[in-house]
Amino acid sequence: MDHTNTTQVVIVGGGITGLAAALFLAQQGVDFILLEKHKGTSIYPRARTIDIRTMELFRGLGLSEALREGGKALAPAWGVLRGDNLMNTLQSPTVITDKMTPAQLVKAQNEMKVLTSKSPESLCRCTQDISEAIMREQLSKQDLRFHHQLLSFEQDHNGVKILVEDRTAGKAYTVLADYMIAADGANSMVRTQLNIPTSGNTPGTDLLNIYFEADLAAIVAGREFSQYLIDNADLTGFLLTINNTDRWAFHLRYYPEKGETAEDYPKEKLIPMLQRILGMPDLKISILAILPWQLTVRIADHMHVNRVFIAGDAAHTMTPYAGKGANTGIQDVQNLAWKLAAVLKHMAGEALLDTYNTERQPIGAYYATLSGELAGENGLINDALMITKGKDLFGLPNYGYLSPAVIRASDIPFTYFIGEPGTRVPHLWLNESHSLSSLDWIKGQFTLIANNTDSWQAECDHIKLRLGVPVQLIILDNKDILEKWKDVTATRDNEALLIRPDDFVGAKVSPGRLSDLMRSILCM
Ligand SMILES: Cc1cc2nc3c(=O)[nH]c(=O)nc-3n(C[C@H](O)[C@H](O)[C@H](O)COP(=O)(O)OP(=O)(O)OC[C@H]3O[C@@H](n4cnc5c(N)ncnc54)[C@H](O)[C@@H]3O)c2cc1C
Questions:
Q1: pLDDT tens-digit readout, 159-170
Q2: Cα(94)–Cα(252) distance, rounded to whole angstroms?
Q3: 424 C-alpha vs ligand 1 centroid, how far in Å?
Q4: What residue's CA is closest to ligand 1, atom 53?
Q5: Is CB count within 10 Å lower at the N or C end of the chain?
């Protein structure tokens, strides 16, 4: 063993959740090392939909435009089609209306209008190979250790001791960290070693993700679709569009329970099968990669044990049909990063870290369960149910947090987007061009949004002095914005909203109360 490294946080896994953890810890000024056992980020496109809330988070990191640009080619693809032969289906005169009835389309458009008024962001299509590369690029100055694998770990009340293998050098070394975030995926070794129980209604469907290149641009242009479902006597599976031109993924159902293995599907067998499905027997097809995977719902009972936290697929493995796996993982670590920072900077009690589990476990469990319900009996997406659940899936943050890190006057059910403690801060455009939103104020800091000047600056200064916690003060001195804000939030002239660094409202504050409420939120 060569050398020992020390850091505040070790992140295990350089998938989308681990990379997001790195971005949020960097934003909070926390020192970390990220370990990823592979040489680079994944080549598999997997997640294609970045939901509204996740786009808000990327906006705060200055990455939303890069992701939209990265996903530009995929953007026009929406809707689910069915058939046995793609060419025939796309040439049908009803191909557009087959995706949704006109009534469903109008309903969806109306719902979309309401949704877009609540957020400065909208859904973004961008495949995971591209989004991970963009995130990694943003982290180029950080300590990301690709081709380094976590071998084992132990923790005590002082920290976590992690044994790592540098796979390039073929050497092991030790890292000492205050905390560890395990974003090591569905088969999380860390979750297993922590003995965290799991539950879930696993549909138990095995699929081969066949990622291939074939030029379909001419037949798809103007008739773009998101998924093409095939379920006949010969085969069951779905075709996903990756860039609407030459990249596609076919997910083929196969049956290990009948003795089948991935090796039963060599390229020589798959290429004629794909040509048949696409309806073009002479089409040139190159298979880029084949990845066996399983439709799984697995929910961890809890998301941390002392100094080790689990996030993303390690904490809640979902079917892809709700489009929430990556989104939920990213939102997990955004919730965790500011809490770790506050504890590491001695600004909060350690009990604040328990609220990560209290706040995030139910959200992961909800989406994982929903994703299982969206899997039909044949293992394909139940698109009729998806349409009825549609507005839950766009990802406007219509969930709230109940925990000691939120001060609520009562336990009545949440109303969203009106500034209730436990919900995401309301969005209001701050300029005519609609480029600046009230969410843009926050950027990972405690923020007090006050309706008048009163004594707020003195209260913020007091907190900085006594607790060491910087609080950004926003005084609403623009009459127009103040009126709109008071209207949306039903706050009185002398009230303010204290927003946590994750954009969620921590408390509604009256003069003289800020210090006490902040202490409560920080579990001091
Ligand atoms: C077909 C398909 C479509 C999908 N569509 C969507 C979608 O539209 N929207 C959405 O939100 N989600 C979607 N998902 C789900 C999404 O891909 C996953 O939820 C997401 O990849 C989980 O990210 P993660 O970082 O938590 O885990 P992973 O992506 O599994 O990453 C874990 C990482 O940890 C590394 N690792 C593991 N063990 C170690 C170790 N000991 N040491 C070092 N490194 C280690 C692994 O190499 C890996 O890189 C889809 C999934 C599939 C299969």
A1: 999 999 999 999
A2: 26
A3: 26
A4: 46
A5: N
Determine contact, residues 416/427, Cβ cutoff 8 Å.
no
Q: Which atom of ligand 1 is nearest to the CA of 325?
A: 19
Of 393, 428, 450, the last residue of a domain is: 393
* Beta pairing class for 298-300 and 286-295: unpaired
Helix (H), strand (E) at residue 372: helix 351-373
pLDDT of residue 288: 96
Measure 185 CA to ligand 1 centroid, in angstroms.
Answer: 5
Contacts of 140 (CB under 8 A, 6+ apart): none
User: Which residue is closest in CA terms to ligand 1's atom 52?
Assistant: 46
For the stretch 323-352, what's the b/e string if a residue is b when 16 or more beta carbons lie within 10 angstroms of its beta carbon? bbbbbbbbbbbbbbbbbbbbbbeebbeeeb
Name the residue at shortest CA distance from atom 19 of ligand 1.
Answer: 325
Q: Residue 66 C-alpha to ligand 1 middle, in angstroms?
A: 21
- Which ligand 1 atom sits closest to the C-alpha of 311? 26
For residues 21, 22, 24, 29, the Cα torsion angle rounded to the nearest 10 degrees is 140
Enumerate residues lining ligand 1, CB below 6 A.
Answer: 12-18, 35-38, 46-49, 128, 149-150, 183-186, 189, 293, 312-313, 320, 323-327, 329
Task: Write out the H or E segment, with its range, that includes residue 213.
Answer: strand 205-213
Distance CA(49)–CA(74), nearest Å, equals 10
Quote the ligand 1 centre to 159 CA distance (angstroms).
Answer: 27
Residues 419 and 469 in one domain: yes
CB 321 within 8 A of CB 381: yes
pLDDT digits (tens, 9 = 90+) for 42-81: 999 999 999 999 999 999 999 999 999 999 999 988 888 9
Task: Tell me how far the alpha carbon of residue 329 lies from the centroid of ligand 1, in angstroms.
Answer: 9
Structural tokens at position 69: 């640009």
Q: What is the pLDDT of residues 425-465, one digit of tens each?
A: 999 999 999 999 999 999 999 999 999 887 999 999 999 99
CATH code of residue 145: 3.50.50.60
Same domain membership, residue 408 and residue 374: no
Q: What is the residue with the minimal CA distance to atom 9 of ligand 1?
A: 323
Query: 240 φ, ψ to 5°?
Result: -110, 135
Atom of ligand 1 nearest to the CA of 324: 11
- Looking at the CA of residue 240, tell me the nearest atom of ligand 1: 1
Name the DSSP class of 414.
P
CA 293 to chain CA centroid, nearest Å? 20
CATH at 472: 3.40.30.120
**Pair 308, 371 in one domain:** yes
Distances 324 to 362, 439, 479 between C-alpha atoms, Å? 14, 22, 39
- Ligand 1 midpoint to CA 17 (Å): 7
CA of 184 to the centre of ligand 1 (A): 8
**Angle in degrees, CA 18, 422, 350, rounded to 5:** 60
